[in-house]
Specification:
The protein is α/β, with parallel strands linked by helices. It contains 3 helices and 8 strands, in the order E-E-E-E-E-H-E-H-E-H-E.
Length: about 120
Amino acid sequence: MRLNEISYTNATPIDGYGAGFFRIGGQVFQGGVLTGPEGTVAWGGYADPEPVLALADQVDVVLVGTGADMTNIPAEFRETLEQTGLGVEIMNSPSACRTYNVLLSEGRRVALALFPV
């Protein structure tokens, strides 16, 4: 079996997550987070679209992790992001973390907005 080392070019992968937190690049973040090419910051949720919109010219898609279960996101939030040309994909937060890491390893232009599990 041949193993290849994964290199992440412009963002930090998700190391882990648990009840109420995410570990990204060895650092623990409590609550909602936004991560992408600009680093990781606390995210205030759907009422706080500005940090996500600021990534519009750096990423093509934003994965939204809705917590332990997949739920719909507010239509206004989705429309705001899509009007700037951002693709939006929703899934539960564990799936969003895994998908984000895979897309990063492929060199994709992606960001991740997460609600804790």
